[in-house]
Amino acid sequence: MEEQMKVKKALNNNVLIATHPLYHEVILIGKGIGFGKSKGDVVPQDQAEKTFLLKNEQEQAQYKQLVSYIDPLLMEVLNDIIHLIEDRMGEKLHEHIHVALTDHLSFAINRAHQKVQFSNPFLFEIESLYPKEYRIAHEVVSIIKDKVGVDFPEGETGFIALHIHSAVTNKTIHDMNRHHQLISQLVDIIEQTLHLKLERHNINYNRLIQHLHRAIERVYQGEQVGEQTNLAKVLKSTYPVCYNLAWKLIKVMQQQLHTRVDESEVLYLTIHLQRLTQS
């Protein structure tokens, strides 16, 4: 006979900790799953809408603490939001979203109640780089408004989109913010060198942002874009300002990322920069 899950502790009506025959301790989420449950009670498999392990002990402790101080009705809304994100993304999310996004949204709701204003300096870049996550984040903001009565500022959409992307890729928010800061630094250098103000909604700006992001990704993955010696000579003689600026950007990237950037990136950057000077 197959061993069953048994209640270890009900955190609230919709969340409980259970012992599992294979995974020792799991967290179960489901409407009413914790109602009237006592330690040792058997939990039917079909009662759990979501089962997750949170193998990281620190995350598990954080989640238990979160559940203890977040209003159970709000917790239900936040759990529904995570289910919706997984459904909309069409892929399995890393379990840390249960801690990270739950924590972020509960604090964001508190900030909104206290009328604390803040801005998101990378809002356009986030929307440009993660359009699907950004659309879903807008949906999350609408749900918070409908269900909780809190109207988030636009910057919050960007932060939620980052959490969604983090849950899909398992990249940390810290690393993503570091990359956005680097991209922002590179854009500042471009504007100063070319003596222009880049229009954030211009298609060429969008292409540049995406290219810089992909270049950073290639550095981490050790990819090379291939040698183009002849093209390098042509670009260097035809667009010397943009070519030299591209080299300057590559050197900044190398300093910030603490690793070598493939020299061929210069060619593609030169082309993007030349487009910007013509737009």
Outline the structure in words.
The structure is a single chain. The protein has 279 residues and is α+β, with helices and mostly antiparallel strands. Helix content is 62%, strand content 9%. The protein contains 11 helices and 5 strands, in the order βββββααααααααααα. The protein has helices at residues 57-69, 72-89, 97-113, 123-129, 131-148, 154-169, 173-194, 203-221, 229-238, 240-257, 265-278, and strands at 5-12, 15-20, 24-29, 42-43, 50-52. The protein has a 5-stranded antiparallel sheet. The N and C termini lie far apart (70 Å). 33% of the residues are buried. The model has no long low-confidence stretch (mean pLDDT 86).
Unreliable stretches covering 5 or more consecutive residues = none
Order of helical and strand elements? EEEEEHHHHHHHHHHH
Question: Based on the structure, what is the oligomeric state of the protein chains?
Answer: single chain
Helix content: 55-70%
Give the end-to-end Cα distance, rounded to a whole number of Å: 70 Å
- Computed CA radius of gyration, to the nearest angstrom: 24 Å
The side-by-side strand order for the widest beta sheet comes to: 4-1-2-3-5
The largest β sheet comes out as: 5 strands, antiparallel
Number of strands: 5
Structural class: alpha+beta
General shape: elongated
Features:
single chain, five-stranded antiparallel sheet, 11 helices, 5 strands, 62% helix
Helices, strands, pairings?
Layout: E1 5-12, E2 15-20, E3 24-29, E4 42-43, E5 50-52, H1 57-69, H2 72-89, H3 97-113, H4 123-129, H5 131-148, H6 154-169, H7 173-194, H8 203-221, H9 229-238, H10 240-257, H11 265-278
Helix pairs in contact: 1-3, 2-3, 2-5, 3-6, 4-5, 4-6, 5-6, 7-8, 7-10, 8-11, 9-10, 10-11
